[in-house]
Structure formats: structure tokens, C-alpha cells
Amino acid sequence: MPSDPSLAEPPDPTARPGRRYLRVLLRVLAAAGLAVDAYVHAHLADRYDPISASISQGTLFRIEAGVAALAALLVLVWRRAVSDAFAWLVAAGGLALLLVYRYVNVGKLGPVPNMYEPVWFGDKWLTVIAQAVTIAAATLLLLTGAYRKRFTARRRSRRRVE
């Protein structure tokens, strides 16, 4: 144990309980946002079945619900950067499509029907909020995880030099 405090190693940021609780909270927020997204899409799917080309909008909603549910499960169970990135992509992709089809009449794209819907309603707002919360939480998960890995890698390389 060195007597000079300046020679002591800096504390390990992964050992701080506050950081661990923050990451757990972020995971719960991301999963909750994805769960709301999955619920709303599954709930609305039957209403959008009549809108179809080769594939109906209701089927696309069911796919979105399944992917969002999978992402929520992965964020909670498989706590890795890959699952955090997957959650971010699901939420960001869903939000981007929602906003595009709200403001732009894209028309029919191959097998995808024209999903232009220039109105706001409660379930759409709920989905926007849930996806925004998920994007924010997943972004922080990705940033704090990357920081932790870089910091511990630098500490390990310093130990080898000494």
C-alpha cells in the first residue's frame, strides 16, 4: 500500500454501485419503451390489415411488434453491446418510419403498401414517446459500456508498462 495517495490506482468505475444501478435503470427504460412499442403495434395490427399491397400494413405491424418484443427481451437478458445496439436500431428505425409516413406521402414501395397517415392520435404519440425513451436509454447504454471498456483497457496497458 503506497503512502503517497497520488500513487494509488484510480478507482474502477465498474465497481461503483451507482453506475451499476444506472445501467440497470437504463435497461429497464429501454425494455419498457420497446414493450410499449410492441404492444401498440400488436394492438393496432388488425385495424391495418385492409391496407395491403403484397404484404399488409397489419402484417408489418405484427413484425414490428415481434422484433420490438425480442429487442426488449435481449436488452434485459443478454446484457451486451450487441443487444443494446439492436434495441437502438429497432427504436430508431421505427421512429424514423413513423415520422416519414406521417409527413411524406411515399406511396407504394414494391410489396410495401402506401402507409401515409397524416394524423396524430394517442397510440401514435405513445409510440413516439416510447421509441424516443428507448433511443435515449440505449444510446446511454452504448456510450457508458464503450467508455468502461476503453478505460479498463487503458488501465491494463499501463500496468503492463510498469
Low-confidence spans: pLDDT under 50, at least 5 residues? 7-13
The biggest sheet amounts to: none
Assign a percent range to the helix content: 55-70%
Distance between the termini: 16 Å
H/E element order? HHHH
Describe the structure.
This protein has 162 residues and is mainly α. Helix content is 69%, strand content 0%. The chain contains four helices and no strands. It has helices spanning 17-44, 57-77, 81-103, 122-161.
Short description:
The protein is mainly α and 162 residues long. It contains four helices and no strands.
Show the helix and strand layout.
Elements: H1 17-44, H2 57-77, H3 81-103, H4 122-161
Which properties best describe this structure?
single chain; 162 residues; mainly alpha
